[in-house]
Design a protein that fits this description.
With about 475 residues, the chain is of the alpha+beta class. It has helices at about 10-60, 170-225, 240-290, 295-320, 330-340, 360-375, 420, 430-440; strands spanning about 75-80, 85, 90-95, 125-130, 135-140, 145-155, 160-170, 325-330, 345-350, 355, 380-385, 390-395, 445-450, 455-465. It contains 8 helices and 14 strands. The strands form 3 sheets. Strands 1, 2, 3, 4, 5, 6 and 7 form a 7-stranded antiparallel β-sheet that branches.
């Protein structure tokens, strides 16, 4: 049961069914109440009309014996003492009026006397009251019992006699109509609920079919570990299509990240292999022939290995989401410290304050200076200045510069241009990648363009405090 109602389709169908059921119950109750109220109002009107008809005859002086009260609906005429003076034919039992009597006493000119006698009792012309009292009751006429609405209408004759006419109207029509409507609702509402549930089930099934396709494809991707696959995108503009597009974008980003990680591992292994192999060779030669041991070469390979390990460790921390921190520092002082002791490097640094990691920003400046010295013919110029809300560091060399086609490529990891790769002291191709990554994490940018005097000019922009 929990699995059945664990699906979106089942919950949507159940929810729609409950909402429609509540709406139908409320609407049905309102319809039944309105129907019953209208039919009762009609019965009240008819009962009042019958009572006024009899009251009109009494007000014009019609004798009791000459009153035609009929035998379809119950009618009583009661005097001020509550005594029944006239009653309709066939009435056997009544309730809901002033008296439950069904037989009027014999009167001159009444039902038991000669109706055309000269001494028949006749009422003087009078008037009919305005107030009508409506009540519920029952009556039995010719052996058939039913519910009635009774209208009580007062009549006052000119000789002071006060009478009340009770006329009833059967509620069989109201009860029959209400019962019929209730029967129709009891039959129709479940059918309508079934139609709504079926329609909701089919609509949600159709709407969720792309979601199921996305789920199956994602399961297949997880099983095969093939991140080059993509989920199907519906040709619609709804939430499911946006979900598919977002999923594919996530898969693309994940594929790029995994591919970048694989390339990183492969390149790191390749870069580590060279200094390790060289160092091992030198140590093995030194162990066999101590007089041939190249100690400076071994130290140089060890330093290269140490720097590469430090770069890989920093990249790993950055990829893990290490934040830049919020330490306030003087960027000019950082530049002057990193440039100290470097041959051919001139510094023109203003004092500008930024926020971030001193060690990471120092690594950025150091990497830019290393790159500049590696490619410069004779000189590297460094300037630090303000530019609006930015602190700007420019590192310019007098080398051959960077071709426009390579200006974004050089910031990729383990990428080295042929000229740099041919140098014995060339780096591993991580310095500029680390520099741009750190700059971006500090809310800044790192770009390269041609220097005014030739060579390459690297521009680092960081937001001022």
């Amino acid at each position: 049961m929990s699995r059945l109602f664990g699906s979106v389709r089942s919950r949507a169908t159940l929810g729609a069914g409950l909402v429609v059921a509540v709406a139908l119950v409320m609407a049905g109750s309102a319809v039944l109440f309105s129907l019953r109220s209208n039919l009762i109002d009609q019965a009240d009107t008819q009962a009042e009309r019958s009572a006024r008809g009899v009251a009109t005859l009494l007000a014009t002086g019609k004798p009791y014996a000459d009153l035609d009260l009929g035998d379809e609906n119950p009618v009583q005429v009661v005097d001020a003492n509550g005594t029944l003076v006239a009653v309709s034919d066939g009435l056997e039992r009544i309730s809901g009026t002033a008296t439950d009597a069904v037989t009027a006493p014999a009167r001159p000119g009444g039902p038991d006397g000669p109706s055309d006698s000269d001494d028949a009792t006749a009422l003087e012309p009078g008037e009919i009251g305005d107030d009508v009292e409506l009540t519920d009751g029952t009556a039995t006429i010719d052996g058939e019992s039913a519910d009635y609405r009774f209208a009580a209408l007062p009549v006052e004759t000119d000789d002071g006699a006060e009478l009340t006419v009770y006329a009833g109207e059967s509620l069989d029509t109201e009860q029959g109509a209400v019962d019929t409507a209730l029967t129709v609702m009891l039959i129709g509402f479940p059918l309508l609920l079934g139609v709504v549930a079926a329609a909701t089930w089919l609509v949600t099934r159709r709407a969720l079919r792309p979601v199921e396709g996305i789920r199956r494809e994602m399961a297949a991707i997880t099983a095969s570990e093939d991140l080059a696959r993509r989920v199907p995108e519906p040709a619609t503009h709804d939430e499911v299509a946006r979900l598919a597009r977002t999923t594919n974008a996530t898969l693309a980003a994940l594929e790029t990240s995994v591919e970048r990680q694989r390339r990183f591992v492969a390149d790191a292994s390749h870069e580590l292999r060279s200094p390790i192999a060289s160092l091992r060779t030198q140590l093995e030669v030194g162990a066999a022939h101590p007089e041939l041991l190249d100690v400076p070469g071994a130290v140089q390979d060890t330093v290269r290995l140490q720097r590469l390990a430090a770069d890989l460790l920093l990249l790993a921390r950055l990829d893990a989401g290490e934040g830049p921190g919020d330490q306030r520092l003087d960027l000019g002082e950082v530049v002057r410290r990193e440039a100290r002791g470097r041959d051919g490097v001139t510094v023109d640094a203003a004092d500008v304050e930024v926020a971030g990691s001193r060690s990471q920003l120092g690594r950025v400046i150091g990497n830019l200076l290393d790159n500049g010295q590696r490619h410069a013919r004779s000189a590297v110029a460094v300037t630090v200045r303000r530019d609006g809300a930015w602190a700007v560091v420019e590192v310019a060399d007098d080398g051959d510069g960077v071709a426009e086609a390579d200006r974004e490529r050089i910031f990729e990891r383990f990428v080295r241009l042929d000229e740099a790769r041919s140098r014995d002291d060339g780096g591993a191709g991580l310095g500029l990648a680390i520099a741009r990554d750190v700059a971006a994490r500090h809310g800044g940018t790192l770009t390269v363009r041609d220097a005014p005097a030739g060579g390459a000019l690297f521009e680092l922009r960081l937001p001022l405090v």
